[in-house]
Amino acid sequence: MAFLMSTETFQLAYDGDAIVDGSMDVYLLSPALLSLGELIKDANEILNGSSSESSLRVRSDFRTGSFEVSLILGQTLLEATKNLFAAHPTIDAAGLVALLFGGVKKAPDVIEGVMKVYKALKGEKPQGIVIDQSTHTTIFNMGDGNNYRVEDRTARLYQDERVTRSIDNILKPVSGLGIDFMEVRKDKDVIDRLEKGDLPSRMTSPNDIGEFLTSDADGAKLSNAQEMLLRISKVNFEKGRWTFSDGKSKFGAEIEDEAFNEKVRQRQEAFYAGDTLHVMLRTTQKLGKDNKLDITHVIERVLRHTHALQEPSLFLNSGEDRPEPDAPKVLPPSRE
Prior knowledge:
Helix content: 10-25%
Distance between the termini: 45 Å
Number of helices: 6
Number of strands: 17
Shape: globular
Radius of gyration: 22 Å
């Protein structure tokens, strides 16, 4: 079976005092690149369905100054499905890059590129959505008097929680000390640049990553938060502790991520044996007066839920009684 291939090259760059020698901490770079791969994979699935597959490769021409990595987005299209999607042409690699990061030339009134929308809205969700069929755009109302007109496919991507979570992770290095901004580049042109001031408040909270030692009346307490992959051993649909495995041992943890908990309550999450959660896990060790060591785990945010669909279902939502979110308003096509 024949395949068609399209490719597009772009660059991802970080800069700041921590990168003066052209090097970057692998613990910052690796999660960002993996999240970029997930972003492209999810965007391709949302826009193209099963008609194509995407891949992301790193090219080894690292450049000094800022830390810049050159990336090649590759897309494979099944020849057998080509005619089936004639009415809705498959978006190729160049189109995916434009819809994710925007083009070099900026449209005067319409935002194209999920990263540009993220920057304009500071990663927040719109309070109102109006679909304008006459211009193939979507109007995001932020509730503060600001309205943003967004290209319709870009708007579709931005409203998917998987996409915004991946962008959060790509920008996570910028939220720390020593890295001031991230740029997406096409050769010598800067497509977009995001600085610390463009990040949402959830990215700049002091307890996202790090370690701190405190003390109270009962003794010393040491806490740290880090990203981890956890396998679900036992779910808990009421407020309380879930059971997870980190590959070595099992432990209980409460989930503080209210957005994730709400999706569970609204039956928008299905769980299968072998499912994993990509989380921000806070672990606290407390040494009491009797010298007893107590350890607690709390999941601050659920970054991604990965299904193991080949396994029997632990909990599957039929969706029949799922409350529907408020539908966006639709403006009819122009009669002109």
